[in-house]
Amino acid sequence: MILSPLTALLVLLPALVSAAIFPPDTKVKMVDPKGFRRAMKANRTAVVAFVAPWCGHCQRMAPEYSKAAKNLHPLVPFYAVDCDEEGNKRLCGEQGVQGFPTVKVYPRGNQGPSVPYDSGERTSNNLIRWASRSVPNKIKSLPKVDDISAWVDKKNDLPRVILFNKDKKYPLLWQVLGNNFWQKIAFGHHSDPEGESAQSLGFGPDGKNSKVLVYPAGSNDPVLYQGATKYEPLIKFFRAVANGTADLTTPTTAAPPKDEL
Ligand SMILES: *[C@@H]1O[C@H](CO)[C@@H](O)[C@H](O)[C@H]1NC(C)=O
Ligand SMILES: *[C@@H]1O[C@H](CO)[C@@H](O)[C@H](O)[C@H]1NC(C)=O
């Protein structure tokens, strides 16, 4: 039998449909057991939806879940497992999946128990709020400038990093990094709306909204982080800080970098 192009397409269609409950440009990553284990090894907060392609609630959730994934990218990765796939059934069983969809957050990958979604209708806003709230908070708030030296001294055996910014709160980005590097790097936050505290430590004024000061393990002399205060460059830098390969030789007395704008 010779298949017309259309018939060939129809023959292929069921397979395509089953994979496609999420929109084509989605940030949701479909994983198999190997991908799931790799994701869990990273010790990050990750969200996983266990779905079946025929399930109506899954199809209705998919655009909302995808929107939440986009909103929290790259801070909190969103995954999905197709529990209809033969090779995934055991994983879905191990994860206690009894109905579809089952959405769970793994606050530190496989370092601790997962928590099922419990925040009402599965809208993108609810999913975003729930996932953000699930990131373990390892940030030490240092409200007064005097709190800084005491904390820096107490945690002297670890590298320490402090975010100075204009806001009372630190961003989710900082909380995510604090969780990722928990027990490897100690994270602090100091609200410094006028930049006075940073200046008293020898940094600024340079018109920047936020600064990251780094204290190498064993030293109480801070170094100013020079890169962009964004997720990818920060995570790369902190990996190097954690494994001791970061270049932290800039002396504190160096002239502050000039504003480029
Ligand atoms: C995750 O945490 C465990 C236990 O603290 C540690 O042994 C492992 O190296 C960590 N993995 C990563 C990628 O940081
Ligand atoms: C240390 O971390 C950096 C940044 O991730 C990496 O490029 C480097 O290979 C690591 N070195 C060692 C010795 O682990």
Key features?
18% strand, 5-stranded mixed beta sheet, alpha/beta, 261 residues, binds 2-acetamido-2-deoxy-beta-D-glucopyranose, single chain
Specify the number of helices.
9
Radius of gyration: 23 Å
* CATH domain fold name of the largest domain: Glutaredoxin
Q: So what's the overall shape? A: elongated
| End-to-end gap | 69 Å
Mean pLDDT across every amino acid position? 90
What string gives the helices and strands in order? HEHEHEHEEHEHEHEHEEH
Helix-strand makeup class:
alpha/beta
Assign the CATH architecture of the largest domain. Answer: 3-Layer(aba) Sandwich
Using the coordinates above, name the CATH class of the largest domain: Alpha Beta
Strand composition percent:
15-25%
Bound molecules: 2-acetamido-2-deoxy-beta-D-glucopyranose
Query: Biggest sheet, in brief?
Result: 5 strands, mixed
CATH superfamily of the largest domain: Glutaredoxin
Q: What are the segments in which pLDDT stays under 50 over at least 5 consecutive residues?
A: 13-18
Question: What is the oligomer described by this structure?
Answer: single chain
State the domain count.
2
Q: What is the helical fraction, as a range of percent?
A: 25-40%
Protein name: Thioredoxin-like protein
Describe the structure in your own words:
This protein folds into two domains: 15-133, Glutaredoxin; 139-243, 3-Layer(aba) Sandwich (Glutaredoxin). α3 packs across α5. It is of the alpha/beta class and 261 residues long. Strands 1-3-2-4-5 form a five-stranded mixed beta sheet. The N and C termini lie far apart (69 Å). The chain is built from nine helices and ten strands. One 2-acetamido-2-deoxy-beta-D-glucopyranose is lined by residues 41-43, 111. This is Thioredoxin-like protein.
